[in-house]
Amino acid sequence: MIVAWSSPFWWFVVLFVGACVGSFLNVVIYRVPLNMSVNEPKRSFCPGCRKDIPWYRNIPIFTWVWQRGKCAECKMKIPVRYVLVEALTMILWGAAWYFFGMNGQPGEAFLLMVLLTLLVSISFIDAEHYIIPVKMTWWGAAFAIMGAYFFPELVTLVKSDLGWPGWREALVGFAAGYAVLQLVVWGEAGVRKAEVFF
Q1: What whole-number distance in Å separates Cα of residue 26 and Cα of residue 46?
Q2: I need a labelling partner for 155 at 20 to 30 A (CA). Which of 59, 91, 144, 175 fits?
Q3: What does the alpha-carbon distance between residue 50 and residue 129 come to, in Å, rounded to a whole number?
Q4: Using one digit for the tens of pLDDT, what is the confidence trace for 92-128?
């Protein structure tokens, strides 16, 4: 028996997977700014005592609440950011599926989940370290432009054929955004040179 996309079953699956992805994003947010691999070590560990966290103490949202935001071994406080990332990712994935997946548009929902996942990662890394990983922004741009080909209505806001209509809007938006950011960089460099000169 095939479960229809509109079934609440898929929505609950998406919520669960979204929370698990949020748990992994905490690894990304912690390790990427420190130039650590997100794959090695494979298991999550406490930043304080450095002990591996077993799977039964790594259940998204629940574990943080159950342990009152502390490591089970060394009792070090675990920042509230961890549970916020898990909950936010779960909610955003659930919203994407609710508005698109449950309306028979699973492809659009999946694309939004990917982009929202990247956005959560970038936002929390930026908030904590004041840096934006360039690779993440390029991956986001690539997924968005690719998605605009298959799901042009997400950028044209009207139902249209595959291909050029979506690409045109996405490429114009990408070019405009890139140009504005480049102008900001050039402007800042110009101001610094002027300050040195005067």
Answers
A1: 12
A2: 91
A3: 21
A4: 999 999 999 988 889 889 999 999 999 999 999 999 9
